[in-house]
């Protein structure tokens, strides 16, 4: 009579440190940590650990673009905001209740919101839930506004700025016999607004985007007047406003508009679509101190592929609508929808059907504690 069959004892599982090293090397897209956290309670505990999440941010350094915010105007509700995820269903961001009006900027994992009715600003961190309410500057007109949110911490690595001090550069645009813009800076360290600087401008300032390069913040002037071929500069140290003229022929060459963004060489620049190409410009200063514009790079959109298929004519009448300052993702809006292009790898993907609203990319490591898995009590 044969001996009864006995199952071999279960093999010892690797220690926690081995799993941590494996999880550390997963791509920063939240869907990967989300999937791993659903395997068992042990993995979920390791992934939720604040120490591991801190290491994860330090290891990857460049946060992924989780999605973008859009300002919408609909009847009968009026102004409202929506968040469009670009990394799958694992990313869940809900707007703070009671503050529904308008997005003005996103910076290093925080979002700047503005309430037209209350004349109040909110710096909101979707990952930590932290909210910092700021009353708008005194003597505010507030009908045409723009703003930039800037991290004021003295460090180079901005992957973990959730509790760092910040500044708000707030622009109040006014129109009487001519256009005016007033700029005022709020510091979270002093909790007060500074004095205002003012300058006449050829047209209103576009609130769709701002770009921080060095110690200056830049906005585009709307192409509404004949002499509106400029961008606006605010120098943070001197707190002075100035105008920078764009190259000749910009309005004619880029009829679908341009987008202000940091250039690849570290200067201020812009991108625009001309027929089937994306042009990237930079403002350079030569050896004699003379500033001028230079065309740095051209991307031929006819060579881009979507799901291994040529992009073809899908980018007819397209325009650059956003650039994620914390990554290299460029957003294009075309008749067929909104597309993301990774500038370095030239990867292209569609993220939404056509939409006419401005977008504000939101980049951060998705580290919302237990919400990183989306489900708190899952049976193993």
Automatic annotation (TrEMBL):
InterPro entries listed in its UniProt record: AT5G49610-like_b-prop, F-box-like_dom_sf, F-box_dom
Return any one Pfam family short name.
F-box
Q: Where is the signal peptide, in residue numbers?
A: none
- All residue ranges annotated as the F-box domain in the record: 15-56
PROSITE patterns in the record: FBOX (PS50181)
Top-level taxon of the source organism: Eukaryota
**PANTHER family listed in its UniProt record:** F-BOX DOMAIN-CONTAINING PROTEIN (PTHR32133:SF409), OS07G0120400 PROTEIN (PTHR32133)
- Name-wise, this protein is F-box domain-containing protein
